[in-house]
Amino acid sequence: MLDEVCRRARAAGQKGRRVGLGLTYEGLQGGFFKTKTIDFYSDEANQLYPFLLHLLDRWWTRDGVRAVTVSLDLLRKSNALQLSLVDDVIKRNSLSKAMDDIRAKYGETSIMRAISLKQAGQLADRSKKIGGHYM
Predict the structure, then answer these.
(1) Which CATH superfamily is domain 2-134 in?
(2) What's the predicted TM-score (pTM) here?
(3) Rounded Cα–Cα distance for residues 36 and 110 (Å)
């Protein structure tokens, strides 16, 4: 889901610096929505994933989950590029753009993370739905 949120942000020319994670528990019996503001703007799932994982580890009660929400906000135009001494930002951005182009041309499931091929993976199923429903 984070990959999709970041792809949409890139398509809109936006980067964000607050990620959010929400879970609704089975039977609609509670849940949470928590956010984490980070020190930099990003539209890269690999950069934002550790923050979402921290929110999950911190707030999930291990109850069954019915729905998951992932968000990115505190947005700004992505016309500026934050360079790094330890990361090749230009190469990473080019890779993300190439992956977005392939998905746009060949479909959402043309490139996916290997974890999505496991039994619990949802990407293939979600790619057949609009708004969470089969058409």
Answers:
(1) DNA polymerase, Y-family, little finger domain (3.30.1490.100)
(2) 0.70
(3) 31
